[in-house]
């Protein structure tokens, strides 16, 4: 069995309508510590119809709310305040290597211009007070 065979079996339980192949593979990361985990990351371009089908399948999965938590659409824009959109999304907590993998995919798939991606990451690293002061000055 290949890694993709196992992944497709698990996806079939939760989504049922998408199959990933070796060509969809982007990277793998090993987390250090007492509970070492290898996280494999795949990305695949979908049609709007495929995306809608997956979103509906996720909600109706028998594992919804336990293993399948639905889908999240990442905002690929930054609002004029320089915090809304992608920077605000990146300020959330991510499990394991998920944030790194998302940023990696956005960069290598050219989904967000590299300078805009760097600005979004930098905005999440500013102290919150500075971001509030900046927003107050913009108003």
From TrEMBL:
InterPro entries: NudT16. GO terms for molecular function: snoRNA binding. It holds the Pfam family Nudt16-like. It is found in: Nucleus. It comes from the Eukaryota. Keywords: Nucleus, RNA-binding. This is TIRR protein. GO terms for cellular component: nucleus.
